[in-house]
Amino acid sequence: MASLENPLDAVALTQATTAYPRSSRYYGLGTARFREADGQEVTYLRRRLLPDPEGMADLTTHTVSTGDRPDLLAARYLGNAEQWWQIADANSVLDPRELTGEPGRQIRITLPSGVPGGAHG
Hints:
Blueprint: H1 7-15, E1 31-35, E2 41-45, E3 58-63, H2 70-78, H3 84-90, H4 97-100, E4 106-110
Antiparallel strand pairs: 1-2, 3-4
Helix pairs in contact: 2-3
């Protein structure tokens, strides 16, 4: 059985990717395995690190109003409610409720990391 303790297996395990669709925040993440004390192996998804928001091109800035929700903002600005996580990434937010919890807050709406363009480019 493959194990992270074996260097050859570790390379193969760390390069494995999941079947998440390209639009998912988990796309391209690899999996790894952990062996529990009883010898059972558990496969888990590797940690996703937030991208640097400075590398994202701005589309616009949104001022939060009462009743705003991340999924509604994603549908409005990105055309897909399931892309709310891109707005969270652009604002370095782990909990999406932080995005819209405070009316008046200014949040960035950006293109995904690595996509050139936006309002100023």
